[in-house]
Amino acid sequence: MIDPKEKNSLSPEKEEQTSTIFSNSSVQVAKKSSPGKKKALKLLAAGLALLILAGTAAVLVITAPEPEPTSEVSSDETITFYEKDRTNIKEVVVTHREQESFTIYQKPAGGFTIESLKEFDAQTNRYTGLTNALAKLSARKLVTENPTNLGDYGLADPATTLKVTFDDGSGYTLLIGNLSSTVSDGYFMKFADQDAIYISSTAIHTNACHPIEDYVSTTIIPAYDDGSGSENSDVSSVEYLNITLGGSKRRDPIVITPTPEKETENNILASVYKITSPKEAYVNSDVLTKLTDNIFSIYATGIAYLHPTDAQLAECGLDNPTSTLSVKYKGGSHKILVGKTFGESCYVMREGVDLIYVAATSSFVWLDYQLEQLHTPFLYAMFISDLDRLKITKDDRVWDFKLQHDYYVDENDREQDDITVTESGKAVDVELFKDFYQVLITQRADELAGEVIQKEPVLELQLTPIDTKKDPIHVRFLVTGARTRGVEVNGVLTFQTTASYVDNLLENLEKLMRGEEIVIDS
User: Fold this and answer.
1) pTM score over 0.90
2) Prior bond of 278 cis (ω within 30°)
3) Using CA atoms, how far apart are residues 281 and 372, in angstroms rounded to an integer?
4) Cα separations (Å) of 449 from 36, 44, 278, 346, 488?
5) Which of 173, 308, 337, 423 lies at 20 to 30 Å from 67 by C-alpha?
């Protein structure tokens, strides 16, 4: 076997036929131009030059981009240098001209690592790609056997140098230079102890020039593992014990916990999870689903800093994160910290992992969530089909509506509810009552309540469900400002609505009692 490091010693006569490079038992052939053909081409070029000079009165100087250095030898066939297995590689010393250098070595138990990255999860495909390319090293083209100026190829001061050592003690040092301007995705390369310059294979182009950060996994939070061994664990089965949203953009942390079972049994408004701080409120289930769908399987687009300094933390806004998400669930916990945003990206850390990621802001739907967005939008909503009685009190005046439900199955086999309504024993137009009830329950309270100005309520509601096991809902509207009314539900005051809502509700109540049309805002 001929070592690829050795110079080609074939005679000129033999060179006219083939140049053979051996690697273990593999033989690849690189075609070369014969000296005869070269001489004919030179004579033809000289003749054409004389013709051009004879017919031209002036010499035109054309400025063009510097061409790729002329090849003394050309081949379009793959040239194979080594045909080993990646497990035969003992170590690879990667030296970058403008980036941190490092050594990749094979672990005793198999697989590869970098000493300074052992505490981080590995981007295993990066190790696999590079070691495969170096064990089965090949080139796409022989550019020249005797270069006159290595600087023309970026090889006088290589961008990357790869020193490969195999388990049998053999190895090589490969220099990587400039990107070729004529061969797609190919770099100029040469062995340190040889003169010949080649165009690298795509495998070398793809894997050789990565900085050390690229060997760290970009998985911030992995997929949820329910212990079943399935790759598609059901994230909806996660039992959350605590979800806390914090950061500088929130005045107080927002804490979400499971609603006690006894509370869900008796309270028709209760959701599975509730906000317990800074104010008590039930959670908007749609928003909570969006949030929990965004707790696992979170990926970065890159790594900004390994082992960041205090200055780098400050630079990325992670000395005082703008938004944080802390999650505790049966089986584990994690915390994500988000710093400065730039464009559509942001700096991110996972607590306990000493590096800063770069990720798309779209990966974090909860970045700007505030308490007003998380609570259930309708503070005292009850389906009319669940309503047995509605009592409204304004000062000393009381309206007491009683509903009768007669259920039946229609011709399309669908269950229907034939409702009749009375107020203090007198019949009320059912369709008008439905319109009025829709106005009553669909007012959103999207603002935290201010300080109560007067103790006496300006309006009270009591909604009693058909299910006698469920508690009635008591609502009191309290003055919190000239144009605002606090909404106290079952003794808890969290949010407020507009004074005009209360006025509009009373106006529509009068219309209902007079049998007049009620306008429902779209």
Assistant:
1) no
2) yes
3) 10
4) 94, 92, 12, 33, 9
5) 173
